[in-house]
Amino acid sequence: MNTKNYIRVGLLSLAIITIYSCAVKKYVPEDELLLDSYNLEIKVDSAAVVEDVDLLKAELEKAISPVPNTKVLGLRPGLHYYYKVNVDSAGWFRKFMNKKIGEAPVYLSDVEEESTRDLIRNRLENRGFFFSNISSTVERNEDAKEATVGYKVNLPQPYTLETYQVDRDSIPFYDVLEEQVQSSPIKKGSRFDLSAMKLERDRIDQNFKEKGYYNFNSSFLIFQADTNRYDNRKFDLFLKLKKDVPSKAVKPYRIKEINVYPHNIVGADSVAQDTTRFDNKNYIQDVEFFREDRLDPFITLREGDLYSPEKSKATSRRLGSIGAYKFVNIEYTEVDSILNDSVNYLEANIYLSPLNKRSLRAELQGVTKSNDFAGPSLGLTFSNRNLFKGGEVLNLSARAAYEVQIASNSQAGLTSTEFALGADLIFPRVIAPITFDSDIFEYSIPKTIASAEANLLNRSKLYGLLTFSGSFGYIWQANKYVTHEFDPIAINYVNLLYQSEEFDAILNDNAFLRTSFDQQFISGLNYSFTYNGMLRSNRKSLFFVNSNVDIAGNSISLLAQEGDPDPANGEVRDEFLGLEYAQYAKVDVDFRYHFITGKEQRIATRLFAGIGLPYGNSDVMPFSKQYFSGGAYSVRAFRTRSLGPGTYAPPATDNRSFFDQSGNLRLEANVEYRFPIFSYVKGAFFADAGNVWNTTNNGLPGGKFSGNFYNELGIGAGAGLRVDVQGFVIRFDLAAPLHDPSLPEGDRWVNDFANPVFNFAIGYPF
Description:
Layout: H1 3-22, E1 34-44, H2 53-63, H3 77-86, H4 92-101, H5 113-126, E2 133-141, E3 146-155, E4 160-166, H6 174-182, H7 194-210, E5 221-226, E6 234-241, E7 253-261, E8 274-278, E9 281-285, H8 292-295, H9 309-320, E10 325-335, E11 344-354, E12 358-368, E13 373-385, E14 393-405, E15 415-427, E16 447-459, E17 463-477, E18 482-499, H10 501-509, H11 511-518, E19 521-532, E20 541-552, E21 561-565, E22 572-576, E23 579-580, E24 584-598, E25 601-614, E26 665-678, E27 681-693, E28 714-725, E29 728-739, E30 757-762
Parallel strand pairs: 1-3, 4-6, 7-9, 7-11
Antiparallel strand pairs: 2-3, 5-6, 8-9, 10-11, 12-13, 13-14, 14-15, 15-16, 16-17, 17-18, 18-19, 19-20, 20-24, 21-22, 22-23, 24-25, 25-26, 26-27, 27-28, 28-29, 29-30
Helix pairs in contact: 3-4, 10-11
């Protein structure tokens, strides 16, 4: 389907939904009105001082029911299909839509104002607002067959805390409780808040667990509030233990013995197993499946330590990160002790269920890339786990792909075939000249990864490229959100096996581009920092930051020798093993901020900035390390590599500019509003801006970065559909340029929505 037909179908669908939604009111019974919305108004008494009114309002709104029918862009498609199926006769399509998004009508008669007022009053009392004045009103619109219910709340002065103390009846546990009260976030002046008291009980329970109180439970704690001493809305808060709390609940527990089962097969018959004592732990296995000295650093539990849930979680997390185990289960068993002992004891049993030692995985994928190539890809991966009985994993992979370039402004390189062989050897520990104590890595132990790959790329009508790459480095998850990757050794060798006359002509036309292909050997180090705050599902504001540093050629220059002069210009460059090598420094940062506006609705933004600077043995960044702009993951109103550098405009007769339009500096900004349509179909409106430049003159007019860069941004806007099935996203975007820097100055603001650019991709752009 071409883009014009795509637009017609979209407009037709929207028109149909609009007509249907406007017709909804004809199905509303004469004595009923649809519940359109609620209005909640909160006023504070003049003598009262109330903080966080907006948060309080948001909580009260959650208590109001029933929820009105869902609206999409002011329409009620779910209600429409419900009426069509339950009132009119309906075909299979309407029945299908009703099953997916249909909603029963919510009428004004379904609203119980008195019960809702009581529920609001209860929420207010839980927050310290007693004797609140609550009223309700109804606004009817007979023409639209709709009604709005309003609730008005007058807030009095809330009750505030004067003292927080432990009830003396809690002796002999008084001292332990008193220590918790002294460090409590509940302070004098705090508003009476039932939820804060529940959080306080959970906090104390968690702290007690960390101090070894294995059998303690938050339900053993109770609060009592006393207002008898005051007449100005103040209260005293007392913390105490319930009566008849078991004696073992108020005794700490220590770990007496640790038993580790490195080869636990669930459901297998029990067999005689050998026990090996290592670092005060019992390793129990029938044969040596996992070396004790390799497994021990992952276990943070120690004999004699107080019971600690955090250490248990850390041990489970670290053992699970090895890559050799399917299940990690830690069980504690109480050990009989003398009744009057001040401390009780636990036995810790760690059961480790291994994954299959060897596995073969095959993947057939439909791949779309940021350079507009799409096609099938077949991959095979053979894995051998726990290779040297220390959790090592060897992955051998083979991949074959055939791709066709779609939606491109260039007719060059329309097809591509790729074959690759690779190997990864992963060690679940640090392999380095310096010895590290595993205890300094609290969250997880870094992994050492050695990788090698050979890749053969055949770009039709242009060239064949053989690439050998290898790396040795480390990956470390510092906590749930932060990941570090460091490759002190990263080597890349590129050999141009052949080139067509057409590709040779492309290089001859642009000396800058030819130079970027000349340096075949890249040796350097890479560092990547990632903070993924998108995992914080309980927040409205989410952040993501990824920063990369790539430095090449410094260490290899110490071993380099002077090469032969270039026959074309007489320049002499250093070589390593007869190969000209690259020297450059490159750094970029990708910052993303998402703001959750509602259920499955968010405003997603992104800023990207990157620069690469050649030096020493290089005048130009290697072509594979340059930036480009445009495409499904960039400025979507422009084809891939059709934007920039700067204000460069390729000749109208030149269909080979695809290989020219790159640079060593990139700036980009994106914003997107995402919303649900129905079921797994989502929608988006977006705007993108960005471009690439060169910091030196590369022979392309207008391509050099200047202080006027903000007038050289490519800007576009559009809309899209996403099919999101459990995180697998197929994306369709239509975008039109608003500002085209390749046009003459004064004519760059354009309005070409009649000819949008269609983008098809897998996954969200940011």
